Amino acid sequence: MSTKLLKNPGQIVTPRGSSARFGEEMGKLTVLTDKDVLLEDGLIAEIGDRGEFDGSIGSESQVVDAGGKPVLPGFIDPHTHFVFAGYRADEFNMRLRGASYEEIARKGGGIVSSVSPTREATLEELKEISRERLRSVVRHGVTTIEGKTGYGLNVEAELKQLQTMTELDKEVPVDVAPTFLGAHVVPDEFKEGREKYVELMLDEGIPAAAEKGAEFCDVFCDQGAFTLEESRRILNAGKDAGLTPKIHADEIKATGAAGLAAEVGAISADHLLKSSDEDLKALREDEIVAVLLPITAFSLKEEYARGRWMIDNGLAVSIATDLNPGSCHSESIPLLFSLATLYMELTIEESITALTLNAAAAIDRADEVGTVETGKKGDFVILDAPDYEHLSYHIGVNLVEKVVKRGEVIWERRDPEF
Ligand code: NIG
Ligand code: FE
Q1: Could you say which of 62, 113, 143, 294 has the lowest number of CB atoms within 10 Å?
Q2: pLDDT tens digits, residue range 370-417?
């Protein structure tokens, strides 16, 4: 058995529990002082008084020193598209000159522009690019990340994206939760017969993805992507194959996609910029986590999802970066905190729950990560700040000093020597 000690946290700041927190419960964090954390085999064995476990430790190498700084659960990014090749800086610059995301997509750009480079990359190339991206993700304090396919858009390339994630999950310390998003958009070669593409996903894509380790099945249910009826078929076929439904809902238009999330029993409904009050209340009824992506709204200059309203109406809200090559090329957790607090009007306490326990619930991992409690993985972020409130107050600055995964320091900031 390997024993580790997280020593000397200035404060331990955490939500509690093994399921999503709803409504006002989101704002209730526990703040512990004068405690140390004992870890056995990477899991939290006990939280005790400062110094209590000193006798359990044989050597200094078993100690992670928090240096009197705030300690939080490792952050969880529950909605990303981090596996892709090629960039779309040209499209971003077209948007700076006034073109809209939808106009660019109508002219043949958008999601489909990421398809050729992703299809052309070998598995090894895709893994190397994605591994490099995960290094940056970790520097922001993220210890668990969800990732989607959706830039292959044929069975072979979708499975290559999936394999990138299942292999990286084993090779890097970050946990990767893989989602099949074969229904991201209809690829160019099926533009004249979209029904055939839906059938390809139903008959081949979904069963193969389930067999090769996908956990979730997602669909971009929106204007310009998949209709409500197509999305219903895709998510139900995913369920039949053992994949838990997720949905990109009501980002561009209110199509009733959030209502579909409730109908199929999705684990999360994501984006929700344009969702109706009624559909959002259905998410509350069915205990579906609302995953909000404020950096995407910022990047597209759209109105933010109504985070404050959702929490006031009892929903469980999570936040995520949506890191992708098009609508939101950002893995910035500091920006995520700034936008969630200032523009979606979450408190910093609610934002922390949104990026830890509720994010874990959105990817079905709330029993193993998302809080600092006995039995959970020893995943922590140590901040270089006097207290956790600086996550919102110190605007846009990465405060992460150390990242700990299962008791091991996997990243540590180095300061310049002056
Ligand atoms: O979540 N909305 C659909 N999919 C992504 C965008 C992907 C892209 O632009 O490449 C999103 O924003
Ligand atoms: Fe997305």
Answers
A1: 62
A2: 999 999 999 999 999 999 999 999 999 999 999 999 999 999 999 999
Tokens of 199: 């059938």
CA of 101 to the centre of ligand 1 (A): 10
List the structure tokens of 297.
Answer: 């709204």
SS3 label, residue 144: strand
**Entry pTM:** 0.98
325 ligand 1 Cβ < 6 A: yes
Nearest CA to ligand 1 atom 3: 220
Chain centre distance of CA 340: 14
Which atom number of ligand 1 is nearest to the Cα of residue 114?
10
Task: Give the separation between CA 139 and CA 148, rounded to whole angstroms.
Answer: 21
Q: Which atom of ligand 1 is nearest to the CA of 270?
A: 1
Is-contact 198 191, C-beta < 8 A? no
Q: Alpha-carbon torsion 186, 187, 193, 198, what sign?
A: negative
All domains of the chain in start order, with CATH:
3-73+370-412 (2.30.40.10), 76-362 (3.20.20.140)
The separation between CA 118 and the C-alpha centre of its own chain, rounded to angstroms, equals 21
DSSP code for 205 = I
Pick from 328, 329, 330, 331 the residue to mutate for probing ligand 1's pocket: most ligand atoms within 8 Å of its CB.
Answer: 328
d(CA 28, CA 80): 27
Q: Which of 149, 219, 220, 270 most suits a substitution to test ligand 1, by most atoms within 8 Å of the C-beta?
A: 220
pLDDT tens, position by position, 105-136: 998 999 999 999 999 999 999 999 999 999 99
**Which among 226, 234, 164, 161 has a CA at the least distance from the CA of 204?**
234
Which helix or strand (DSSP H or E) is residue 63 part of?
strand 63-65
Q: Which two tokens stand for residue 164?
A: 């990138």
**CB distance 322 to ligand 1 below 6 Å:** yes
What tokens does 330 get? Answer: 């950002």
> Rounded CA gap, 375 and 401, in Å?
25
Residue 209: both structure tokens together: 């993805």
